[in-house]
Amino acid sequence: MTYKKRTISIAPMLDWTDRHCRYFHRLISRNTWLYTEMVTTGALLYGDVARHLDFSEEEHPVALQLGGSEPAELAQCAKLGEKWGYDEINLNCGCPSERVQKGAFGACLMKESKLVADCVRAMKDAVSIDVTVKHRIGIDDMHTYDFVRDFIGEIAGAGCQTFIVHARNAILKGLSPKENREIPPLRYDVVYQLKKDFPGLEILLNGGVETAGQVEEHLKHVDGVMIGRAAYHYPWRMAEFDARFYGDGTVPENPSAVVAAMIPYIEKQLALYGEKGLRMHGITRHMLGLVTGMPGARRFRQILSDPARLASGNPAAILMEALAAVRF
User: Fold this and answer.
1) Does residue 93 contact residue 65 with C-beta atoms inside 8 Å?
2) Gene3D superfamilies annotated for this entry (predicted)?
3) pLDDT band at 97, cuts 50/70/90?
4) How far apart are CA 199 and CA 194, in angstroms?
């Protein structure tokens, strides 16, 4: 199936953008591209594949982000992703965490562009869907434009057409992942220049983008914008994306429609996976920011976080109580 362009996408965020979060986000925006949390090749090759890859059909368009550095293993996992129905396979070359570095993948791969090219080539040979790369503009003290330009040039030569560029350097030692999202300065001009130098490639900008107005400014220079934590903490901001960036006016009138639509989903998921340990909080935790800034938002969050209420196993009653606390 053909989907609209990746004008807007929501970043892969570990422990956040699971299948329940993505389903919730899809209720707010029909066209925004959604990405899984990073899934390592080891988790798929030696773990519970269904637990990592299962998703709802409503989530399309949805991309699977892989973490790994062995071409053959990545090819095998990409093939699994295509079989499961994902619309894109994305290779993580941007995560700076020490745990990821120990696995020899993530941002440290930017030092090995030929290996990344081999990984991309192997995945593209294995699947018919898009293979994309998410990366930083540099690592540690490698701040020169030539570094990221040559990185992209090498991988584009392997057939990759789409690059998601986090407009910060990754500091591999001394900064936590959170600090890596905040301390290295944002250099949007570098991403803009990449689009000028590679006009035939699809260049998406990531990093520090919070509002539709900011998205609009960046789209004057690049093909698309990926939003991270702002979309998670303020999900209702996505409600204007479809009309503003995709010409699609089919949007929920207010958050109450989204909450109501989550009730049958939660009931179904609890019935299917409750015996495997799924609890209502595993779903409602993604909804806490939906009404941020509206009267009653604090009470809404309290209700959807209350262990005693959530243990009652009555999604409809709990969500309706939370909604009743909000004035739209």
Assistant:
1) no
2) 1.20.120.1460, Aldolase class I
3) confident
4) 8
Q: Does 166 count as an annotated binding residue?
A: yes
- Report whether 269 belongs to an annotated binding site: no
CB 110 within 8 A of CB 135: yes
Cα–Cα distance, 276 to 273 (Å, whole number): 5
52 is in an annotated binding site: no
Distance CA 206, CA 226 (A): 5
Same domain, 96 and 170: yes
User: 35 - beta bridge partners?
Assistant: 63
Return the active site residues. Answer: 95
User: Structure pTM?
Assistant: 0.96
Q: Which of 228, 192, 249 is nearest to 35 (CA)?
A: 228
For residues 206 and 241, state if they share a domain: yes
d(CA 327, CA 197): 49
Instruction: Give the tens place of pLDDT for each residue, 267-285.
Output: 999 999 988 889 999 999 9
- Domain contains 1: no
The domain boundary, picked from 246, 277, 312, lies at: 246
Give yes or no: residues 15 and 75 share one domain: yes
Number of domains observed in the structure of the chain: 2
Burial class of residue 263, CB neighbours in 10 A (0-12, 13-18, 19+):
middle
